[in-house]
Specification:
heterotetramer, A: 247 residues, alpha/beta, nine-stranded mixed β-sheet, three-stranded antiparallel β-sheet, 20% helix, globular, B: 213 residues, Glutaconate Coenzyme A-transferase, three-stranded mixed β-sheet
Chain lengths: 247, 213, 247, 213
């Protein structure tokens, strides 16, 4: 019998080695596997490279992991946020390396890793300073840049429900990076609100088929869904949108 | 003398220019105001790059759901007919040319359509791109929504961008608090001047040739 | 109000021009938009390039289209089947051009067209005669071939249910090429068993979001689902599997 | 003298070698017999490249559903825990290295692991590849299931393939009606000889050095 369910988050993250590249799902806090990140902090792995769209919010989850000093480098598209003070401080003091990747290239490079693509020609960032050092090619009259896949040792993701084969479904926009990171990592660990019996997930609606998932751990209903801390966007300069001073 | 319209009025002006049935992405910041300016009964389908089509307006305070947010990480709702998808699929829509319009903020727009909106290039600033470079190359029409002038009085419409580029030759129209400009092969042309603005006064403000005799 | 529904299949295929590249969904007969193909035959467009995994089965659907002589070229992975006699005859007599593409490259090239990718490095077909004329590149010690997207003017696909925005869900393995072809074509026409009110399809389960679809036409329950003609596989040499003589 | 086992027995031999929990793709033709040889209670997850994981066996005659087929276009069923997906996702699983085992038919296998199974190269034959080239490069282990000899008595195990290649150096093991062979850096090695076959007799049949003294 295949049973990928794991009793607790500590057991789920056991074995993550120092120096690992760890993909962490989520866009801002939606889909961020906060409970798994907390377990990773307790686990103590260091010298990590983190792949996430952002660079942490507030003092929880990814931000708390960054604050431990165990992250050597972060690969992301949008570090600057109204509540990214942990990252901001590390970056300004030169204690963390940043690889800035346009969000679509980030997603497509992760997808390429899972799909066995060796590289691809992307239309994004042509003619910008992020094109520096990249191979450019004109195809059918349009300019493209060669981009390479981003592989990871581990992916930590958050989903709504899972079964013992590792099949997952997500909730609303919390789906974001989970499905592509699951496919791009050697080992994928998913926290879910709930583990359901095999066969309860409609085969037409499975978003991440179980072959991409190695461990599934139930964390129950996420308390931080209710704490009100997730609201509020940022403007072009990363200031809270409520502040109307910026154009 | 009236020379500027409010950001809300500008959002309404943009909303009025978007045809029913369009697929539209609104960048973070001021462009999100356009969502509120679209009549509830209009079927304009909003795409948010974090993984949704058919985004609706802000929820009532007691209906806020942290799993349901837009690209600016603000709480939103889902309309009937909505669909969720993952990030690679979401950006495939964008990069594959399936969006009709995107509305972005800007630091500078050049008369050849170049856009700079992700970094002022200031020392010590933390860079952040998000989906702006993908939107710039992906949407059929890239509209910019911005004040015409910076707080220091400099024109955001320029001959050549000095800030780092987001995209090359991508902008088709610029909606500002003073006027609406089309990007044409001959440079900016005034589509509509608000209040007492004229082509001549706008040319003086921007320091650009706007085609006025 | 957005309403992509169309009253009948003839109206749905109106406007398809001579010389078009037409993607046709389906793997064998599962997912093949038979009713739309019939309408295309009645419509009369000629000099077509067809993209499909196969080259027709029996005398219906794609096979019937081929038999009209209006298909100049077919791009597919597996033309040879136990019941592909229409294609076989055309091919052997030199009346149709064949571009043979490994199935994974076919799928990924179609996906690339929809996703705005200019080209990609594929691990498939390296060192085979299908690599001839293709650019090879070694990335991270592995050999890859450069493959280009396949775009189409029109996609004809079959789904289970659709709504007036063009959102689609599929049924079982009939999903196959529909979602990626819908994204790769300038104009996508979907036949569905049933059109449902907007909002009836769960947003978590939409497979093809409506922005990829231009026209939706209901064809009712497909009679050919019941006719028993779809059963029976083929062996390596394309003979019915029931025939036990081949290894 | 017994020198061959039946195709059903060979399928059972292959099934017995596949560990519980494996993700397995069975090529069209003889390899589909392996599905029937897997015990119903074993949780080996079958992938079919036309878009399904968790494929089950053949349906009862009155349960046949033309929308639910395998890569050989035969009617199949879905197990609890199954998932459907489109073709690009399906081949991403394969090409991304997520399948543990695939079992393919063959015209020829060379002692360096090269596989030829899509075209005999015969004049006038209609070529067809399907997913074989993707399976050859994608699965962690590529097993071949075939008769050792052609109907003309020629060995399908060869020093170098003369038929057009499907994949280069991809085969790890060959299950034949005479014996099971591993592909090693030194060429084919007999893993198990059936009935009265010996390394020496197999070396004679194939004309290959099989490492027998």
């Amino acid at each position: 019998m295949i049973d990928k369910t794991i009793a607790d988050t500590a057991a789920a993250v056991a074995g993550i080695a120092d120096g690992s590249t760890v993909m962490i799902g989520g866009f801002g806090r939606a889909g961020q596997p906060v409970e798994l990140i907390d377990a990773l902090i307790d686990h103590g792995a260091s010298d990590l490279t983190i792949v996430n769209n952002n660079a942490g919010n507030g003092d929880v989850g990814l931000a708390r992991l960054l604050s431990t000093g165990r992250v050597r480098k972060i690969i992301c598209s949008f570090p600057r946020q109204s509540d990214s003070w942990v990252f901001d401080d590390l970056y300004r003091s030169g204690r963390i390396e940043l690889e800035l990747v346009p969000q679509g290239n980030l997603a497509e490079r992760i997808r390429a890793a899972g799909a066995g693509i060796g590289g691809f020609y992307s239309p994004t960032a042509v003619g910008t300073e992020l094109a520096e050092g990249k191979e450019e090619r004109v195809i059918d009259g349009r300019r493209y840049l060669l981009e390479y896949p981003i592989h990871a040792d581990v992916a930590l993701i958050s989903a709504l429900r899972g079964d013992r084969w590792g099949n997952l479904v997500y909730r609303e926009t919390a789906r974001n990076f989970g499905p592509i990171m699951a496919a791009a990592a050697t080992s994928t660990i998913a926290q879910v609100d709930e583990i359901v019996p095999l066969g309860d997930i409609d085969p037409e609606s499975v978003v991440t088929p179980g072959l991409f998932v190695d461990r599934v751990v139930a964390v129950g209903e996420r308390a931080w869904l209710q704490d009100g801390a997730f609201i509020g966007g940022v403007d072009l300069e990363g200031r809270p949108l409520a502040t109307e001073e910026n154009a | 003398m009236s020379t500027r319209i409010s950001r809300q009025d500008l959002a309404a002006r943009i909303a009025a220019d978007i045809p029913e049935g369009s697929i539209v992405n609104l960048g973070i910041g001021a462009p999100t105001l356009v969502a509120d300016a679209i009549p509830a009964e209009a079927e304009i389908i909003l795409h948010t790059e974090n993984g949704m089509l058919g985004m609706g307006g802000a929820p009532a305070a007691d209906q806020v759901d942290p799993d349901l947010i837009n690209a600016g990480k603000q709480a939103v709702t889902a309309r009937a007919g909505a669909a969720y998808f993952h990030h690679a699929d979401s950006f495939a829509m964008m990069r594959g040319g399936h969006l009709d319009v995107c509305v972005l903020g800007a630091f500078q727009v050049a008369e050849n359509g170049d856009l700079a909106n992700w970094s002022t290039g200031a020392e010590g600033a933390i860079p952040a791109i998000g989906g702006a470079m993908d939107l710039a190359i992906g949407a059929k029409d890239v509209y910019v929504m911005t004040d015409l002038l910076t707080r220091d009085g400099a024109s955001k419409l320029v001959a050549r961008c000095t800030s780092p580029l987001t995209g090359v030759g991508c902008v088709s129209r610029v909606y500002t608090d003073h006027a609406v400009f089309d990007v044409t092969p001959d440079g900016f042309r005034v589509r509509e001047a608000f209040g007492d603005n004229t082509v001549a006064s706008l040319a003086e403000l921007t320091g650009l040739d706007l085609g006025g005799e």
